[in-house]
């Protein structure tokens, strides 16, 4: 008896040891398959990821869980394991599966996030299993952390294991709870499924990942039916809390894309295998299989492809964007764009053709499925391969990841001659041969934890465009958006074989050491002369940093052949214009006459021709738009209204200045620029009013007993008013005369007499009108008022009584004011 117990214990220990050894299975072998190596050699650059990702052997759920290895590893372009590797190999031979996760919970679901990645699935040639099973992008809050891993085969490394056991006399169906528990918990997956695991497929039979053929007694099998489409009725799924776009299974001949909740029990719906004779015969002794609920499934060509020109497509780019739930909501959005780029960085806008088709979609996500209190989760990719010995390795390379940063690039072309900018969304994309162009590339740091650094720009110059160096031999300049607008020159030596290659000397970002959060590269170029209208296609530009890669494309445009007619601009009035400085309701009207040569017409009153007038005044240029019609188009442009800022306008047209204003007309649609018309603008004072008056006024001395009533002035007195477009009135007042601080109002009084025949008017504290002019003079006019005064007119001093001896003083206050509105 003791011997039996000992044997039993040894068996238990052996079993335990074996179980533990299975849990340490983590692949690290170099890739050697010739097909995979060829694909790796031509893989997109990808950023280094070794320090941001890790994985572990999975923690298996129980002894019947056969998915106890993890084949995911980081490799370089030679297929070798490398600390500087830039590619994740998730499943690299038949029946393998793997997961690779962010080291920490770096994905914050409360913030916008972007993942830009390349994926390789396989060829799909021959049997369909060559490209199976697929890849999944996953967010997870599983307690197993980097050891989280689901089942292989149809499980894609993220779903649960539908473990159905063949026994001696019957089959034991999998349980929904078991499938749920063997999946990656608290997770959301966006699957790129290359194999349609379908109960109705006559070739489909239960599969054992360890290679045991069906049926083998006391062995667990996957029934391989997660993608089975069980009709279109979804009311039961809606009742279970799924959205209305949830479906049983998914279609797609060579793949589909869908959102799933791997750790949710209701995601695995039972299917009656006895309802169909084919299924019943295929899956004996099992009577129940499980179908996976797919949310918004979309058929997609996930395998090797060819573009419209017949070029092979091995790597498929996807941009995944996470849009957080609004405040108070638990519904976030996951946007994805599949096949949005070619490996050279050019955009793919083909959304209809089967060749290299782009798929864009947005799916609502229930964030409660992640079961996170702080919004932080892990993110990563899982994958699985099918049983074919020719199955392709599942590979992923990254342009950007949330741990680092997200930066993008955009491109435009400015036609400096025609004064317009062309983007990919522009409706007018025409330039003329010989036009001066600027090829613009904007780099934008959007968000992240690191600055975007070591940015190597590789820009392909559009066809039929000649890059034009400046006097210093530079073909482009970079302007950084920092406080100093730092610039950096790019030499013509960096333009080789139609591509401009330059590594930016500065970093951009929002952390210390960055030179602003954006930079613009502006390349000077000239549109080539062409004999007929020539369409110029897009050209890619790639900006490869050590921690982020962004691509964009120059917009397509058309170079127009020279027109046989020209555009002529005349000024219909005088080229010399007068402007009154700061006059009320002032205007600076530039009157023009625009015509084509050769009796060419602008069009009828309905269509016309769009014209841009380019006006230069001071050191600034302004534009005004108009629609020209008929054979001759007259246009009056009020430059003051165009500037629409009094301060800016009068800073150019200062008082008593002469300025040159030039204007030319541009027909952007036909690529024509008129001659330049020049105006000379004299800015004259608007109105002015000034006065000249002597500082002192002395009267005749008198002796005691002198009874002269009116005392004459003892000196000449200057009094004049100068006005320009300003009627006026002149007044005077006084506080009287004083002797030693004592008033003499009862002894002496100042009076005014306009002429010798006029009455005398006493001058006191109330202003007395001396003179006025109601005329608004268009030229400066001076009236010398005191010039006509005599000994008996003008200002005089009247004796009222005997005065004490002394020197009397007083103050006169003169006021000239605008008296009549003009």
From TrEMBL:
Superkingdom classification of source: Bacteria
Signal peptide: 1-29
UniProtKB keywords: Signal
Name this protein carries in UniProt: Cell surface protein
């Amino acid at each position: 008896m003791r011997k039996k117990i000992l044997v039993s214990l040894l068996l238990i220990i052996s079993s335990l040891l074996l179980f533990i050894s299975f849990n340490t299975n983590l692949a690290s072998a170099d890739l050697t398959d010739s097909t995979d190596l060829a694909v790796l050699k031509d893989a997109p650059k990808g950023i280094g990821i070794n320090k941001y990702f890790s994985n572990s052997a999975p923690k298996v759920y129980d002894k019947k869980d056969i998915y106890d290895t993890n084949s995911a590893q980081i490799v370089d372009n030679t297929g070798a394991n490398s600390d500087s590797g830039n590619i994740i190999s998730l499943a690299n031979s038949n029946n393998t599966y793997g997961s690779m996760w962010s080291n920490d919970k770096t994905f914050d679901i409360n913030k916008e996030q972007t993942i830009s990645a390349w994926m390789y699935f396989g060829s799909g040639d021959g049997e369909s299993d060559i490209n199976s099973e697929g890849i999944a992008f996953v967010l997870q809050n599983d307690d197993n952390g980097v050891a989280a891993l689901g089942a292989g085969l149809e499980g894609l490394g993220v779903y649960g294991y539908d473990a159905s056991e063949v026994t001696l006399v019957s089959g034991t169906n999998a349980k929904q709870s078991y499938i749920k528990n063997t999946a990656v918990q608290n997770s959301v997956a966006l699957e790129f499924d290359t194999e349609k695991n379908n109960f109705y497929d006559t070739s489909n039979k239960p599969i054992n990942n360890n290679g045991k053929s069906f049926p083998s007694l006391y062995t667990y099998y996957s029934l391989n039916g997660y993608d089975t489409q069980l009709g279109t009725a979804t009311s039961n799924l809606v009742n279970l809390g799924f959205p209305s776009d949830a479906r049983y299974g998914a279609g797609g001949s060579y793949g589909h894309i869908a959102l799933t909740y791997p750790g949710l029990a209701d995601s695995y719906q039972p299917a009656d295998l006895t309802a169909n004779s084919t299924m019943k015969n295929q899956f004996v002794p099992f009577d129940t299989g499980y179908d996976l609920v797919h949310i918004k499934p979309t058929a997609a060509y996930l395998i090797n492809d060819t573009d419209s020109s017949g070029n092979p497509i091995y790597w498929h780019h996807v941009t995944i964007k996470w849009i957080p739930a609004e405040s108070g909501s638990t519904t976030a959005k996951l946007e994805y764009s599949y096949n949005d780029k070619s490996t050279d960085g050019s955009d793919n806008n083909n959304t209809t053709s089967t060749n290299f088709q782009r798929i864009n979609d947005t799916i609502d996500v229930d964030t409660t499925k992640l079961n996170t209190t702080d919004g932080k989760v892990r993110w990563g990719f899982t994958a699985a391969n099918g049983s074919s010995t020719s199955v392709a390795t599942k590979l992923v390379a990254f342009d950007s990841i949330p741990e680092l940063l997200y930066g993008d690039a955009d491109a435009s072309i400015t036609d400096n001659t025609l004064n317009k900018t062309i983007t990919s969304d522009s409706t007018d994309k025409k330039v003329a041969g010989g036009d001066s162009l600027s090829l613009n590339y904007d780099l934008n740091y959007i968000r992240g934890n690191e600055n975007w650094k070591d940015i190597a720009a590789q820009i392909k110059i559009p066809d039929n465009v000649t890059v034009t160096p400046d006097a210093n031999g530079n073909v482009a300049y970079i302007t950084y958006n920092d406080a100093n607008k730092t610039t950096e020159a790019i030499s013509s030596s960096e333009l080789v074989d139609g591509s401009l290659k330059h590594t930016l000397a500065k970093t951009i970002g929002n952390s210390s050491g960055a030179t602003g959060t954006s930079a613009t590269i502006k390349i000077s170029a000239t549109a080539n002369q062409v004999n007929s209208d020539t369409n110029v296609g897009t050209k890619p530009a790639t900006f490869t940093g050590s921690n982020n890669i962004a691509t964009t494309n120059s917009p397509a445009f058309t170079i127009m052949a020279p027109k046989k007619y020209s555009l002529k601009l005349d000024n219909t009035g005088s080229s010399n214009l007068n402007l009154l400085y700061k006059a009320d309701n002032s205007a600076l009207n530039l009157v023009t006459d625009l015509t084509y040569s050769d009796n060419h017409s602008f069009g009828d009153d309905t269509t016309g021709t769009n014209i841009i007038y380019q006006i230069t005044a001071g050191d600034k240029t302004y534009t005004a738009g108009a629609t020209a019609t008929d054979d001759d188009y007259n246009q009056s442009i009020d430059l003051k209204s165009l500037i629409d800022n009094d301060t800016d306008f009068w800073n150019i047209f200062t008082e008593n200045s002469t300025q040159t204003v030039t204007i030319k007309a541009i027909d952007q649609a036909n690529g024509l620029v008129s001659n330049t018309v020049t105006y000379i603008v004299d800015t004259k004072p608007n109105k002015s009013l000034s006065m000249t008056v002597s500082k002192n006024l002395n009267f005749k001395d008198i002796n005691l007993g002198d009874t002269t009533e009116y005392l004459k002035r003892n000196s000449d007195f200057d009094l004049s008013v100068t006005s320009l477009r300003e009627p006026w009135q002149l007044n005077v007042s006084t506080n009287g005369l004083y002797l030693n601080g004592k008033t003499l109002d009862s002894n002496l009084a100042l009076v005014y007499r306009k002429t010798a025949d006029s009455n005398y008017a006493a001058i006191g504290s109330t202003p007395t009108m001396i003179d006025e002019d109601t005329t608004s003079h268009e030229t400066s006019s001076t009236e010398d008022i005191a010039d006509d005064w005599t000994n008996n007119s003008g200002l005089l001093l009247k004796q009222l009584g005997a005065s004490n001896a002394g020197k009397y003083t007083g103050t006169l206050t003169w006021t000239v004011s605008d008296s009549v509105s003009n």
